[in-house]
Amino acid sequence: MRIRFGWERLAKMAGLSVTDKTPTFLAELVSRESEVPKPRALVPRIKVKPDRFGVVVRAKCLPKVGLEEFQRSTRFLADAWRCTRVSVLPDGPGWVVIRAVRLDPLITPTEHLPV
């Protein structure tokens, strides 16, 4: 829940947003001739799903914000989301999967009792 609500602010700070200087149709209708509409910041949409060991986030890519930009910001996302590890993989055209692991099953010691 914290990831979903804080995503817009975090994406802007991590450099995962794009500034769109083209005004929308409604902004063109409402604005006066002497007034220039303000540019808007576009942030990738996300879908968050909890997992057994952390969270799986699917994000829609934007122009100039793709797989490479998400991979560059993995350490920042891990710190912000308080996770031990974050990985980013492609998930079809225009989508990436961000896997945030809070409890790493490979690090935790386990006991095995043979039967």
Report low-confidence residues grouped into runs of 5 or more.
none
Order of helices and strands: HHEHEEEHHEE
Helical/strand content category? alpha+beta
The overall pLDDT average reads 90
What spatial form do the alpha-carbon principal axes imply?
A: elongated
Tell me the number of helical segments per DSSP (H or I, 4 or more residues long). 5
Work out the number of β strands. 6
Distance between the termini: 41 Å
Percentage of residues in strands = 25-35%
Q: Radius of gyration in whole Å, from Cα?
A: 19 Å
Which strands sit side by side, in order, in the main sheet?
A: 3-4-6-5
Q: Roughly what percent helix?
A: 25-40%
Largest sheet features: 4 strands, antiparallel
Would you mind describing this structure in some detail?
The chain has helices spanning 2-5, 7-14, 25-30, 67-72, 74-80; strands at 18-20, 40-42, 46-50, 54-60, 85-90, 95-101. The protein is an alpha+beta fold and 115 residues long. The model has no long low-confidence stretch (mean pLDDT 90). The chain has a 4-stranded antiparallel beta sheet. It is elongated and about 80 Å long. It contains 5 helices and 6 strands. A hairpin with a 4-residue loop joins β5 and β6 (95-101).
